[in-house]
Amino acid sequence: MASLGVNIDHIANVRQARRTTEPDPVVLALLAELGGADGITIHLREDRRHIQDRDLELLRKTVSSRLNLEMAPTPEMVQISKKVRPDMVTLVPERREEITTEGGLDVARNEMFFKEVVGEIQSIGIPVSLFIDPIHEQLQASHNVGASWVELHTGSYAQAKWTSQAIELAKLQEATAEARCLGLRVNAGHGLTYQNVEAVAAIEGIEELNIGHTIISRAIATGLEKAVKEMKLLVVTPRKETLFAGYQSQGL
Ligand code: PXP
Fold it and tell me: How much is the pLDDT for 248?
């Protein structure tokens, strides 16, 4: 049975839209854990567009399940991961203009590079997962560079029309089986939703699914009515007494 890693980047996206303090991904990660998250995933991007260094440092202290840090394989991020020591590092490709992570890593064409980065992080006891497309050459290369895990990119499956979804699902099934034969442990994620998750969750050998966008979307949908009711109550029945009255009467 697969476990669930909840990606909370979108909470930080809302906060950063106003450069304010709410919603706080550190606080809400605890609610995700209360809901049954087996792990919390965050992506610290080079441009810091959502998750901030402060979030990573605090989450390292507060997450009691598992903290999975997604990051680009850059010298800056390698140093940060070695300092903060998440429970797992997932290396992902990163382009400044992209809306979200697009495509998997090209490990096959850069084996020497990945061998060095993976080795450096794993040498201090942090397992590294490589986010790759579910294809033979990337699986073989991930094994060659010594990664403990791969995360299979489920985007093509998630975006497939129903006529080709079975083909994309079969690619994920075959890639999982091949990865296990190579001794790799397997996670998967990207684009999974309440509608399409079950077929992937049922694949034998996948250990964890990392899911973000659809869960945060659902949280907004299920929480909006209550949030509006709470605000409406304050608007129609405001407190009559002046706040800070004591200070005012003392001339403060
Ligand atoms: N896995 C990886 C490597 C990702 O980059 C992302 C998106 O940040 C996810 C999983 C989660 O994708 P989604 O938000 O579409 O569920």
Answer: 62
Closest CA relative to residue 5, chosen from 40, 44, 49, 33: 40
Given this model, what pLDDT does residue 213 score?
A: 98
To the nearest whole number, what is the mean pLDDT of the chain?
95
> What DSSP letter does each residue of 54-103 carry, written as one string?
HHHHHHHHH-SS-EEEEE-S-HHHHHHHHHH--SEEEE----TT-SS--S
| Domains of the chain, first to last | 3-249 (3.20.20.70)
Percent of the chain having pLDDT more than 90?
Answer: 90
Q: Is residue 99 very low, low, confident or very high in pLDDT (cuts 50, 70, 90)?
A: confident
Is 0.85 surpassed by the pTM of this model? yes
Distance between CA atoms of residues 252 and 249, nearest Å: 7
3-state secondary structure of 17: helix
Instruction: List all residues whose CB is within 6 A of at least one atom of ligand 1.
Output: 7, 9, 43, 70, 90, 92, 100-101, 131, 151, 189-192, 210-214
Pick from 7, 77, 216 the residue to mutate for probing ligand 1's pocket: most ligand atoms within 8 Å of its CB: 7
Residue 125 in tokens: 């006891």
